[in-house]
Amino acid sequence: MEKGKQISGNPRILIPEIETAVTNYENALKGSGAEPIVITSAEFDVDDFDGLLLPGGADIDPARYGQENIASEGVNERRDELQFQVLDAFVRAKKPVFGICRGHQVINVYFGGTLIQNLDSSERHSRMGGCEDKAHSGTAEEGSFLADIYGHTFFVNSSHHQAVERAGEGLQIAMLSDDGVVEALKHVELPIWSVQWHPERICFAHRREDTVDGSLVLRFFVDRCCLGKA
User: Fold this and answer.
1) pTM beyond 0.70
2) Integer distance in angstroms from the first to the last C-alpha of the chain?
3) What DSSP string runs through 203-227?
4) CA atoms of 142 and 131, how far apart (whole Å)
């Protein structure tokens, strides 16, 4: 269902994706008190939704940030076009947006930032044997949304080989990994937040003892979506 009447009092959060399964995102949002709606085309009305979640997935076409493809994998222009178009609609409407992993990078590129196509430390940040997220520590910037939720230094999961190089216009770095990778961003004026890690894979049924509880940051986002419903 891509449009329709609201069926509950929970905030309706749109997830745009054409290839990758988003079940973990849907379950995490439901557990956090939201109603996720997945769309596969840009035929939607932004007024029907209270927030946007940009999920993880394969890499963005480097042409979108002015680079040739030297290490980007799984590029799909249809997915890029869908997610950038949907993000544009939510930015213009000034509605809450939360980006996860690829979504974090989409937000950065949308605002004119660039990406590192393959980290020198990619083995430290990519999945172990392709099946389990790694864990590492990071430091939240003082006064950032993550510092308010988790404190100054804490452990998160990790499953990526690319990262933010130059932050886009209006974006502030909210967290760095212990080896200097940008792990979170926040827009200075708009209700837009993003993380390079995967909170949906460290909460509820997927809770891990070696990381923070991802549901806390998802609840933060859902609460901001609720404010627009008041």
Assistant:
1) yes
2) 24
3) SGGG--TTS--THHHHHHHHHHHHH
4) 33
**How far are the Cα atoms of 32, 107, 187 from residue 11, in angstroms, in the given order?**
10, 21, 21
Q: Name residue, tokens 């890029």.
A: 80
User: What whole-number distance in Å separates Cα of residue 49 and Cα of residue 153?
Assistant: 34
pLDDT in 10s for each residue of the chain, 230 residues: 333 334 458 999 999 999 889 999 999 999 999 999 999 999 999 999 999 999 999 999 999 999 999 999 999 999 999 999 999 999 999 999 999 999 999 999 999 999 999 999 877 888 766 678 999 999 999 999 999 999 999 999 999 999 999 999 999 999 999 999 999 999 999 999 999 999 999 999 999 999 999 999 999 999 999 987 65
CB 50 within 8 A of CB 11: yes
The encoded tokens of residue 34 equal 């939201």
Q: Whole-angstrom Cα distance, residue 2 to residue 41?
A: 8
Q: 175 by DSSP, 3-state: which?
A: strand
Catalytic residues: 101, 198, 200
Kindly write down the DSSP assignment for every residue of 38-106, as one continuous string. EESSS---GGG-SEEEE---SPPPGGGGT---SS--S--HHHHHHHHHHHHHHHHHT--EEEETHHHHH
